[in-house]
Amino acid sequence: EQTDSDTEEEEEEEEEDEEEEEEDEYDEDEEYFPTEEDLLEAESEDLEWEVHVPDEPPPPQEERKYIVFEAALLQLFALCIMCGCGQVKLNLETAGSFLRVTQFCTMCRHVRTWCSQPYIGNMPAGNLLMSAAILFAGAIPRQALRIFQTLRCQCISIRTFFRHQHNFLQSAIQRVWKMKHQHLLQTAQQPLILGGDGRADSPGHSAKFGSYTMMDLRTSRILSIHLVQSNEVDGGSNNMEKEGLIRAVAYLRTKGLEVATLVTDRHLQVGQGEHASYPPLV
């Protein structure tokens, strides 16, 4: 019995020793500090030793932007540029990402005003470009703005983002899309070899909206997208794909494009509508 108890005690002591060793290893990992070589190697991909300064400033959307800390920025306004004294008063005004610094010298009474970014009309360019970057990148607005807020970097509000999107960005997207779409139609190689297919907003036979997409199979470019609502066609959602095909082909023909071959799926209504309405198509 004593031998068994001694054996159990020894096993417990071994387990405790193993746990202590694991804790020591964990503590060693927690106390790891990177060396200067590790830091340089990690930042080597971000380093750009030679930065070209253009002779003329580029447009705001193409100009480089930097994150500057407030203490480092205010060092540039520590002295008066007229008399060189350090008895100055500073006033900082912000509007989103925009910063205006007003410097007043108490000795020579000189007033200097500096703005952190140019204007587009009467709007700071950085605020509009921040909204555009979030929207065009497909990011979630609240999460993207929360990144700036966590960094304590001046940024726009969520209401400003939606106002920019409604007043400026949506119309800009539509204008660029129409311009690019017109260019695709004008440069398409005729006769066209097209591939078409439809999709609905929900599976089954209860879909309310459906879209039909037509692609140029030579260039893999989308030439037309047509939206169809189920109450616009007879027979409900089953016939939305057929109606989308009819509209897509009719639209391309109104643009003066000749359709030689059309590749579709084995949808029953599409096959019937295809042969009935457009005999030359295969």
Give a description of the structure.
By secondary structure, the protein is an alpha+beta fold. 43% of the residues lie in helices and 20% in strands. It has eight helices and nine strands. It has helices at 2-30, 36-43, 70-74, 125-136, 141-151, 158-187, 240-254, 268-277; strands at residues 88-95, 98-105, 111-115, 119-120, 123-124, 192-200, 209-216, 221-229, 259-263. The strands form three sheets. The chain has a four-stranded mixed sheet with strand order 8-7-6-9. A three-stranded antiparallel sheet has the order 1-2-3. Helix 4 crosses helix 6 (158-187) and helix 7 packs parallel to helix 8. The radius of gyration is 33 Å and the shape is flat. 15% of the residues are buried.
Number of strands: 9
Instruction: Give the structural class.
Output: alpha+beta
In what order do the strands lie side by side in the largest sheet?
A: 8-7-6-9
Strand content: 15-25%
Largest sheet: 4 strands, mixed
The number of helical runs is: 8
Apparent shape: flat
Mean pLDDT: 84
Radius of gyration: 33 Å
The percentage helix is: 40-55%
Taken in chain order, the helices and strands follow as: HHHEEEEEHHHEEEHEH
Span of the ends, CA to CA: 92 Å
Low-confidence stretches: none
Could you outline the blueprint of secondary structure elements for this entry?
Elements: H1 2-30, H2 36-43, H3 70-74, E1 88-95, E2 98-105, E3 111-115, E4 119-120, E5 123-124, H4 125-136, H5 141-151, H6 158-187, E6 192-200, E7 209-216, E8 221-229, H7 240-254, E9 259-263, H8 268-277
Parallel strand pairs: 6-9
Antiparallel strand pairs: 1-2, 2-3, 4-5, 6-7, 7-8
